[in-house]
Structure formats: C-alpha cells, structure tokens
Please model this.
Amino acid sequence: MLDLVLPLQCGGCGAAGTRWCPICARELAVRPDEPHVVTPRVDPGVPVLSLGRYAGSRRRAIVALKEHGRADLAAPLAEALTTALSNLLTWNVLDTPLTVVPAPTRRSAARRRGGDPITRIADKAATGLPGLTVRPALHLKAFTRDSVGLSSADRQRNIAGRIRVSTPVGGAVIVVDDVVTTGATAAESVRALQTRGADVLAVLALAHA
Ligand SMILES: [Zn+2]
Model:
C-alpha cells in the first residue's frame, strides 16, 4: 500500500527504484568474524554482541522500520541476524536447543508502529535455523518512559524492575535487541530472565550506539 503513495526507495540510502540496494546490502552483510563483542556502560553480566555500529544504512534501516513503517526492511535485517546467529552456533558460543527472546518494546510504541519489529525480525531469522524458538516473553510494565534523551544513570533508574517475564522461559536463552546503547535495557532483560531460571548465554543486537 505504501507503494501507492511513496516512490520506491532504498531504506538505507534513499536510492530510487529499489527497496534495498546492493551497496546497502553489502554494508549490512555479516562477515565470518562477526558479530563482535561490545562493552556497554551497564554490564549485563553476559557477553553483548553487535552486528555493527548504529550508523549509515544500518541505522537508517532500523529507523525506517521502527518509525516510518518500512516493514519490508525486516527482511534484510533478519537475514543479517540469521548469519550472526549461525556464526555464533558455528563457534559454539551458542548451542541448540535455544530460545530467542526479543528485548521488550513499549506496548503503546509497538502498537503505534504496527507490531513489534524486533520480534518480527527474530521470527524471520529463526525460521532458517533448526533448534531455535522465538519467545516474546519480555514486557515493559506500564508507565515506563521512553528512554530517548535520558542519561545512562537515568535509563538504568527508568528501567530497573520495570521488565516482567510473561511466560516461563527455561534452558538456554539469547536476548535479541535492535540497538544497544547504555546496556540498561539489556541488563534488566537478562536479570529478569535469570530471576525466572533462564540460562542467558548472551545478548545480540542489530547495532550498538
Ligand atoms: Zn541503499
């Protein structure tokens, strides 16, 4: 339906006539030595891995998907996530069976944006990998402020105790998030899952800021 009102444009660079151009595809491609370990200010106590910096076409694709309704960009992002998960399985950092738990999105925000993009990306990514199950088990409690514009300490205060686990998740778990910034949400997600008995192996983000 978007095609009726908007000209076809690359979600990464704005090039005309394509949804996702080869240059942006190359920029988003996960190399054999990726994802890399990153060190956010708030340490979740498990390795945090990222597919790349929150910049360039990666950043624009994530923003376009989350804020501008470009649901089609879930496909290239999911492909990158599949490669990253597959590499981690090859390196034995991860093992199957594995439960993929998307980081929580504010409900109102998710609704406004037409569903939770990170869950959609995780679902698509896991489809190609046997032994992986996606469980959207993490939810933000009501009245959690959007973290945009908050300092690291304020984000931590904002999110502390605010994530609940809606369905039991046992066994090995990886938390998947779109962007890791201070690490506050990742840390609280890991803590909430561990409290409920999950063995959280790592956090994997599409990007780190
Ligand atoms: Zn492009």
